[in-house]
Structures are given as C-alpha cells and as structure tokens.
Amino acid sequence: MDAASDDVVAWLLAGDPAVRWQVMRDLLDAPAAAVDAERARVVHEGWGAQLMAARDPDGGWARAAFWPEGFTPDDWEREGQPWTATFPVLRLLADLGADPRDPALAATLDRVESSVRWEEGGQPFFAGEVEPCINGRVVSLTVWAGRDARLIVERLLGEQLPDGGWNCEVERGATVSSFDTTINVLEGLADYAAATGRSTALDQAMRAGEEYLLSRSLFRRLSTGEVVDEVYLDLSYPPQWHYDILRALDHLRAAGRDPAPRAAQAVDVVRSKRRPDGRWPLERVHRGRTHLDIEEPGEPSRLITLRALRVLRWWERAPRS
Fold first, then answer.
1. What is the pTM of this model?
2. What's the alpha-carbon Rg for the chain, to the nearest Å?
C-alpha cells in the first residue's frame, strides 16, 4: 500500500461506495469481482443515489444539457456557474464510478440520448457541443455510456494548437493553449484510447498535450517559471472544467505514463499538503449551484486523499523515463 497507512485505508473504506471501490482497485489490488460488486452500489447508495434521485421524470437533470431551466444572468452573478444540469451531473456520476450498465442508469442514459439537446445548437447530447473544454468531457461521458465518440474525437484532433494543447477561447482570438481546456481534452482522449485502442495519431496528440503541461512543470509559465495561477495548486473536487496539479498527475497515472522528472515539483506540492494524520484536505469547491455537497472544504477529504495516495503509489513504484 506504499504511502497509505492502515488507519487511513480504514478511514477511506468507511466512506461512500464511490470511494470504497476505488480504494479496493487502486490501493488494495482487490480481486476484480469484489471491486465490481462494490462499484455496483454507487448508483443505489450515498452520493450516487442522491444524484440519481434528482433526475427529471422524462430524463436528464434540471431540464437542460448545460444551463438549468430558468437559470438567469442574475443567478450567475449571485451563484457562479451552475452544476445541476445533465452534463455536469453525468460527469460527476461517471467520475464517482457509477456503472452505466446498471438498469436504472442505463435507462436514464437512453432517455438523455433521445431527449436532451445542447442549448448551443440543438444537437443530441452524445453528439457533443462546440467548445473543446466541453467536448473533451463529452468524449469521456460518451465512452462511459457506451456510445460512439469517434466524430467528437476527430473534431478535437483537428482543433489541437501548434503548442500541443487546446483552448476553448480560440473563436475569441486565443492563439495559445490553456491548462484548463487541455486537461479536459486529454482526459477525454485517454478514455477513448482505453476503450477503442490507441492509434498513432491519437497517441501523438495525447503526448503533445501532455508535453505542453510537462514543459511547464504542470503549473509554471514557460516564459518566466512563475506559477500560472495559484488556484492550480489547490486540491479541488469535483474538478468541473478547472485544472489543478492533482488532476494532471492523476491523468498521467491513468493514461499509463511513466513518471516524468518534470512532474516532480507538482508531486512535491501534493506531498506538502498531507496532514500529520496521513490525510489530505479538500481545499476548494468550485462555486456554483449543486444537487449535493459531497465534502466540506477545509476538512479531511476521502476523495482527495484517495487520489493523492494513488498518484504517490504510481510515482514511487514506476520507473522514471
């Protein structure tokens, strides 16, 4: 278990099924059947059940793909971006590990496919939107839901910028990549590659995007070496569209990359945030309307601790490249 002490593991296992099944898989190397059995509980208990209970009767959430029905500019000013519509809720369910083969969730996904349309252009939900920061996450959702993401992936590959990353502000004049958009696309491409196989073109695109981040030590400006944004150093959950160093490190781990020396500073930052009891705090919850509060900012976080421990396990076990 490497850096995970027995009492920390016991504390993690006392949490939500969404935490337990990942601890069993990523820290305890439990048999696949036991992991699958625990994962099957996510839809029916705890956080997953609360999200499922918030569904609209006719499919989806908040009667919308992205913007909740009735949400106004004044609401935005007061509350920030909302996270209660179909897209962010499904993304959270997928991240927590809800099994899309579960009959209740499978039926919901069928209704989403037939009835939920993007506000931007009226296209079907699993066809994707137009901005790469959204479409990267749509690819992950589409793969998770067992649908075909090929056309969205082809669009994303065509939108990669010369510096290796992506930026959803290109249509508004941006010419260089952003950390936020790039991590959203990289996660989507990694999920697609895991489900369909990694073609040369796909692997090259992923490695170029990862190089964009690694050349900046995952959080520094290429020009000056200064921290791009202090928020990138905060440990947050759910990540929504926002970048942070733990999210980037967890992507590299999940994508099967060997630890790169240029990620060492980011790993050191994560290590430095560990409390004396072996746990990590939740430092930031991104502002906005939600269906439930998963964990309390400033308090020890099972989700952050799980992700930090599996990143350190990957970092300490794998050979350096």
1. 0.96
2. 19
Q: Kindly state the tokens that stand for 18.
A: 């969404």
d(C-alpha 64, C-alpha 87), whole Å: 8
Strand partners, 281: 300
139 is written with which tokens? 């690819």
Residue 104 belongs to some domain of the structure? yes
Query: Considering the domain boundaries, does residue 115 fall inside one?
Result: yes
Which residue range is the domain that position 99 belongs to?
60-127
Q: Residue 262: inside a domain, yes or no?
A: no
- Per the CB < 8 A criterion, the answer to whether 231 and 244 are in contact is yes
Residue 227's DSSP bridge partners are: 220
**Residue 122 in domain:** yes
Question: Per the structure block, which two tokens stand in for 32?
Answer: 């696949």
Cβ(186)–Cβ(133) under 8 Å?
Answer: no
User: Residue-wise pLDDT tens for the chain (321 aa)?
Assistant: 456 789 999 999 999 999 999 999 999 999 999 999 999 999 999 999 999 999 998 889 999 999 999 999 999 999 999 999 999 999 999 999 999 999 999 999 999 999 999 999 999 999 999 999 999 999 999 999 999 999 999 999 999 999 999 999 998 999 999 999 999 999 999 999 999 998 899 999 999 999 999 999 999 999 999 999 999 999 999 999 999 999 999 999 999 999 999 999 999 999 999 999 999 999 999 999 999 999 999 999 999 999 999 999 999 986 654
Count the domains in the chain.
1
